[in-house]
Amino acid sequence: MKALVTGGAGFIGSHLCDALLAEGNEVVCVDNFFIGTRENIAHLHNKSNFKFYENDVCDLGILSGIFAKENIDFVFHLAANSDIQASALNPAVEYYNTYSTTFTLLECIRLHNVKKLFFASTSAVYGEKDGANVAEDTALLTPISYYGGAKLGSEALISAYAYMNDLSALVFRFPNVIGSRLTHGAVFDFIKKLKADNSHLQILGDGEQSKPYMHVSDLVNAILRFRDVPQGVTTYNIGVGSQTRVTRIAEIICEELGLQNVSFDYTGGRGGWKGDVPKFQYDLTKIHKAGWNPRFSSDEAVRLTVKEVLA
Ligand SMILES: NC(=O)c1ccc[n+]([C@@H]2O[C@H](COP(=O)([O-])OP(=O)(O)OC[C@H]3O[C@@H](n4cnc5c(N)ncnc54)[C@H](O)[C@@H]3O)[C@@H](O)[C@H]2O)c1
């Protein structure tokens, strides 16, 4: 299989490239280093079945040229803005990097007759559901962040393109994903802050925010396992059944760094920032029924990630 991975120099995308290459596939990666880094894929450049294009996915002419040249069988679309806090101040970032990347890519898929797509969606499409255990067929999707809105818009485009072009699309709505090469989020921020000053730690919100954290290895295994779907769109919530409180993340990091007596300073409020969903869980029945379970619980994923990042 020849796979195109958009956003392949990013955190999850680079792990997906590793796994696809390990399976013996050819991998074509497109990334403009908007957030991803050269280091994430530095170890891949000597592989004969890996090719990298430093390009903007929104450039239809260039992307279409890559499709024409490479004969792509399967597209894994991960390019997006992943810094939700940043786009809260500048929604255009989501329109461009999250929504328009999807549109441009779908146009290439249509023009070059590719039939298989994986899309990295998010639990943020649900919005704030007050602790309700939301399933994939929940009709009321009410994102509260520009990011969630742009991902939901992308899902809608994928639905239309799948119908119009006989496409088989797998959509995973994932929670917080963590692991080595992490680029953002509480685990990343707290480690960075504590390395700069280990006497105190500023925590956004009241620290009671509680979310499922999934290790990237579990996610990548599931993407590969479920990638072959029937024509149309198949959507799964994917994640872990447990959650980790933000204060607990700070405690685990302090334990792993061997720090005691760090004072935690809370900025207050339920969410870390406007658009942050403070408590989240969702219904994983569908993917469990399909025989899939993660290896790591939320707390285990956090501790493993801290060890990986520190190493
Ligand atoms: N990490 C999470 O917790 C999480 C949760 C839910 C969904 N997702 C989704 O998974 C995907 C990967 O996320 P990640 O955490 O690895 O983030 P990431 O920022 O590390 O990866 C995204 C990559 O897309 C690239 N990119 C962005 N705009 C681009 C453009 N216009 N042209 C070319 N490349 C572009 C970035 O440079 C980056 O390398 C994203 O679609 C994200 O929305 C991530």
Task: Give a structural overview.
The relative contact order is 0.14. The protein has two domains: 2-177 and 213-237, Rossmann fold (3-Layer(aba) Sandwich), CATH 3.40.50; 181-212 and 243-280 and 297-310, UDP-galactose 4-epimerase, domain 1, CATH 3.90.25.10. The protein has helices spanning 11-22, 38-42, 60-70, 84-89, 92-111, 146-165, 186-196, 216-226, 246-257, 285-289, 298-310, and strands at 2-6, 26-31, 50-54, 74-77, 116-122, 168-174, 176-178, 200-203, 210-211, 213-215, 232-237, 244-245, 263-266. It contains eleven helices and 13 strands. The chain is 41% helix and 19% strand. The model has no long low-confidence stretch (mean pLDDT 94). The strands form four sheets. A seven-stranded parallel beta sheet has the order 3-2-1-4-5-6-11, with helices on both faces. A two-stranded parallel ribbon has the order 7-10. It is globular. Helix 5 packs parallel to helix 6. It is α/β, with parallel strands linked by helices and 311 residues long. The longest helix has 20 residues, at 92-111. Helix 2 (38-42) links the parallel strand 2 and strand 3. The structure holds nicotinamide-adenine-dinucleotide. Nicotinamide-adenine-dinucleotide (NAD) binds at residues 7, 9-13, 30-36, 56-58, 78-80, 82, 97, 101, 120, 122, 174, 176-177, 183.
Describe this protein with a few key phrases.
single chain, 311 residues, alpha/beta, Rossmann fold, UDP-galactose 4-epimerase, domain 1, seven-stranded parallel sheet, two-stranded parallel sheet, 11 helices, 13 strands, globular, binds nicotinamide-adenine-dinucleotide
